[in-house]
Design goal:
mainly alpha; disordered N terminus
Length: 55
Amino acid sequence: MEAAVKNNFDQFDEKTAMETLFSYLDKGIDDMESGRLHTVDEAFQIVRDKMKNEL
């Protein structure tokens, strides 16, 4: 039983991570289409900030 619970938890974690990643990618695409572009340094800082908020 414990293995089944762990397996479901791992799948949930992976699903949540993928949904979060795709939502960030969608926002990035929307920003690009709207002309809101960032330098590479700005983009990495945005990613770092989002990672800090997620942990």
